[in-house]
Specification:
By secondary structure, this protein is an alpha+beta fold. It has helices at 2-22, 29-41, 44-57, 59-63, 71-80, 84-90, 100-129, 158-171, 192-218, 470-489, 522-537, 544-558, 560-564; strands at 144-150, 175-179, 185-190, 220-227, 231-233, 242-244, 257-270, 275-288, 296-301, 306-308, 311-327, 333-338, 342-343, 350-356, 364-371, 374-376, 382-384, 393-400, 422-425, 434-437, 441-443, 450-466, 493-501, 507-515. The chain is 35% helix and 30% strand. Strands 4, 6, 10, 11, 12, 21 and 22 form a seven-stranded antiparallel sheet that branches. Strands 13, 14, 15, 18, 19 and 20 form a six-stranded antiparallel sheet that branches. It has a five-stranded antiparallel sheet with strand order 1-24-23-3-2, with helices on both faces. The chain is elongated and about 125 Å long. 25% of the residues are buried.
């Protein structure tokens, strides 16, 4: 007998193996492959992965210099790294946000989000128009379940009890549907705003991506330092460094002008700590929206941008601009202008760099410090003790030689490379350094010329920025937060109430609640529903025995065999 069974098993196993070998999987085909790729691309998992990839792909843009911000810095980086620089340039690491690979990730993320949202929106629309699901056969299997008994003396039928339950559920914000029969029931559902909030979040995320892309394509920005009395015109001829979007045409610039008339700084001099803190910065401007427009007086403050011709003006740094006159070895004026002093500390001690390429017979240059209120300490070193110009003084070193400006290579105006220059004045040299107060002139050694500290004024740094989609970024960001809050704190719930008449005239009621996902407030919802039902039918729950008896009767009504057992 055992051998026969073993033989049958071997025969059955061989047949199954033969059947498996005969099965031929259908070929996917070209259209099937496209459908599979589309399914993978539009899954939420892929959308989240692409969103992470966008964040990771943005990292090189913050690590390596970008050509859109400074071409000179990128050129210097490639020159200093002759091996890795060209390779990085080939991979477009200096043009990250304009690169083909970043654009591909961005577009795929955009397509993936749309592919996720559209089917879900269509499905949710159908769910909103459909009736609540049919009443389950066994409500006792739901997470929240309870029973009630309406006494026969109440004279209430099962159908009337269902109508009362329907009215209660409708008042609680549920969409209801009554099912008639021997054991009538009502199905109710609410919480569609949860899925709507989820859809609003994803649609807003798409809106943010589109708005950011538009801003990157058609926006521009630049910074400009204005000395008191200077004017900047919104055109390329008046701008030193211009950062534009990929598709922005400079011919679209509106020719407005901004002149800095006055710049005020208020300081707080705390007598206890003896520290001077800035309180307020105010720039008084004269603005013309167009060459033909009348000039208008405007005020620009920190964190209070000024809107001019669809652009925003922001107040950045500020400081002092001493005026110098430099005469060369031939006695001619080779330089006469304000020099922007770069801020170094809270007391407005600032670095000064002067380059005089027009000096003859040798080019001249100076570097040093500007002190608003100079004070000589016990060690003989001058320091600044106050940011206001109480005793302005400049301390300079001088050099002569080729500045390297004639080869066309751009240089930082705030930095002087003195490695190839010959010093004229320095603390270590017999001539010493240059120390000038307002109105003083110093004659350079070896008959190289002279330098005069003529006077002092203030300067302010402003940033002009245009982002045609920034208001939409804010709008979609707000709606995304609202949608996210709705999807997190709203709950999708379903309730069923079923009634049946007992032979002795009582009406047996059972109810069950189900939530989509985790809902810690489902039990409180069940308690609230039960309290309203008890109050409407004016019934009392006498004891736990009656409750268990009602549950047994409801179970018996669901399964007649349970009553027999």
């Amino acid at each position: 007998m055992g051998e026969k069974l073993s033989s049958k098993k071997k025969t059955s196993g061989a047949a199954d193996q033969t059947a498996k070998d005969d099965v031929a999987l259908p070929k996917l085909g070209f259209l099937g492959m496209l459908r599979w790729i589309w399914t993978q691309l539009t899954s939420m998992r892929t959308a989240l992965f692409l969103l992470l990839m966008v964040a990771v792909a943005s990292v090189p843009g913050s690590i390596f210099p970008q050509r859109i911000q400074s071409t000179a810095v990128v050129a210097k980086y490639i020159q200093d790294n002759p091996v890795s620089g060209p390779i990085m340039d080939w991979f477009q690491l200096f043009d990250v946000f304009e690169s083909s690979w970043f654009s591909a990730i961005y577009i795929l993320l955009f397509i993936s989000l749309i592919g996720c949202v559209v089917p879900r929106a269509r499905q949710h629309y159908k769910a909103m128009r459909s009736v609540p699901p049919r009443t389950p056969a066994r409500l006792s299997r739901l997470p929240e379940y309870g029973t009630l008994q309406i006494p026969a003396a109440a004279g209430l039928s099962a159908q009337a009890a269902i109508e009362d339950a329907r009215a209660i559920l409708k008042k609680r914000g549920y969409r209801v549907d009554v099912r008639d029969g021997d054991r009538p029931s009502v199905g109710a559902e609410r919480g569609f705003l949860k899925e709507i909030g989820n859809l609003v979040f994803h649609v807003s995320l798409i809106g943010v991506l589109v708005a950011v892309a538009i801003g990157g394509l058609f926006g521009f920005s630049y910074q400009r330092v204005l000395v008191t009395g200077d004017t900047v015109v919104n055109n390329l001829a008046s701008i030193d460094q211009f950062t534009k979007g990929t598709n922005f045409d400079p011919n679209w610039l509106q020719p407005f002008s901004v002149q800095l008339d006055k710049f005020d700084v208020q300081f707080d001099r705390n007598s206890t700590s003896r520290k001077v803190q800035p309180l307020d910065f105010t720039a008084y401007l004269t603005v013309k929206d167009s060459p033909e427009a009348q000039p208008q007086q405007k005020i620009l403050k920190v964190n209070e941008p000024l809107e001019v011709a669809n652009t925003s003006l922001y107040l950045l740094g500020n400081g002092y601009a001493p005026h110098f006159t430099v005469r060369d070895g031939n006695g001619n004026v080779a330089f006469s202008d304000f020099v922007v002093a770069r801020l170094q500390d809270p007391d407005f001690t600032s670095s000064v760099v002067i380059k005089v390429p027009d000096a003859k017979p040798d080019q001249l240059s100076f570097s040093g410090l500007f002190l608003p209120t100079a004070f000589q300490g016990a060690d003989g070193v001058d320091i600044s003790i106050d940011p206001d110009p109480g005793n302005p003084k400049v301390l300079l070193n001088s050099y002569y030689g080729d500045l390297g400006l004639d080869n066309g290579q751009p240089q930082n105006v705030f930095v002087l490379d003195a490695s190839k220059l010959k010093p004229l004045n320095d603390r270590k040299l017999p001539a010493g350094g240059i120390s000038l107060s307002g109105g003083q002139t110093y004659q350079l050694p070896e008959g190289k010329g002279s330098i005069t500290f003529d006077g002092l004024t203030r300067y302010a740094g402003i940033e002009v920025r245009s982002n045609p989609a920034q208001q939409y970024v804010l709008l979609f960001s707000v709606t995304a937060v609202i949608g996210l809050l709705g999807s997190l704190f709203l709950s999708r719930r379903r309730i069923w109430v079923r009634t049946g008449e007992h032979p002795d005239g009582r009406v047996m009621v059972e109810y069950g609640l189900l939530a989509r996902g985790e809902d810690y407030r489902l039990s409180s919802e069940a308690s609230g529903l039960r309290n309203q039902l008890v109050k409407t039918w004016n019934i009392s729950e006498n004891s736990e025995q009656d409750e268990r008896a009602g549950a047994e009767d409801a179970t018996a009504a669901e399964d007649p065999k349970a009553k027999e057992d």
